[in-house]
Model the fold of this input.
Amino acid sequence: MPPEVVQDDVEYARPGGQPLLARIYRPQAAQAEPWPLLVDVHGGAWTYFNREVDWYFDSALAADGMVVVALDFRLAPTRYPAAVADVVAGIRWAKAHAPALGARADDAGLIGGSSGGHLLMLAALCPSAPEFSTTPVAGAEGVDARVAYAMPLWPILDPLARYRYLLERRRDPTPPREMFFGDEATMARASALRVVEAGEAEGLPPIWIAHPELDENVTLPMTERFVAAYRRAGGEAELEVFPGVGHSFANFPGEAADRCIARMRSFIRRRLESSRSTV
Done:
């Protein structure tokens, strides 16, 4: 953890009596103006890990002058769309509590990898969808979940396409039991690509996608198809391919991760400058 960053864990929601925690990373130094706000949605095949797994890039971005709110949410065997509803609740909580966190809510962004990239894109595309509005958030009445930008990293944007791709790689005639979506029809409905191609998105915030060249979890053509669809729909989408690395590479300290974090910083800086120039 960078010495200039402090962290705290807080409860942000309690759906069905289950406490959901958020880890807050923020700069130790005070400043006159509020810090930008970023909400992190972790990966783990919708089944594993928690708010701590993205600590490397979360803490690095906080050290650069941001408040990062890394969310826990309900995982499998709890079924879709509960996790998206929790993410939407976490965004609303973070925006509602931004002043207390020393942050500003008007240009909040999202970041997260793999299955987290899928969840955050659904939240970014459909922040007020009824099926994603079922997790209550105390103290966030009247606060929406809209964001100014999103950074899905090596994201699974079409769960059904990815599921069939992995089945082919397994060369196993018996499909594994799917614990999060339940069936292929739900996977298809939960596709961020489908939402964009069907014109169902409430908005298309600017996005930056990192794709590892050696990713064996998500193929580059899958990501390129989403980027093309996003642009056709009128959204701004940037895609950067990182050579010589695999899935989740920026979760681990090293030169490749630091290069990716530098690109994240550049995109965030440009988005924040753009949003301020339009105010």
In short: The beta strands are 5-13, 20-27, 37-41, 67-71, 109-113, 149-153, 207-212, 237-242. The chain has a mean pLDDT of 95. The chain has nine helices and eight strands.
